[in-house]
Amino acid sequence: MDYFRKLPGFRRSASGLEWQVLRKLPWILLLGTLIPAAFVYVLYLSELLEPKVMDKTIIITIAVVILHWTLMVVVGFAAFIVMIMKGPAYVADPYYPPDFKDRDDDDDPLRGL
Fold this sequence. Notes:
The chain has a domain at about 15-85. The two termini are about 15 Å apart. Helix content is about 60%, strand content about 0%. It has helices at about 15-45, 50-85.
């Protein structure tokens, strides 16, 4: 049995925005992490804020960075799924309901495709 039988006559879709997103994702992830971290580091070294306010600023910055990472993971998954969906199409095996009486196990209706 051929599990990965490609659908004949199917044309692959041209790659698009998903590859551009996947290529830029590491840089976006790095910049989205370094920019808030550098901002807090400069504030920490300048000692412009009180310690209590600085602690809150650090916690908020950590939360923003973690939110950014989470969003980048979601965008990466979405781009990967679109890339997989644009790949070749495969013929699935037919599913017969339990009450189907005229089923012939030896004859595959999609074999001619």
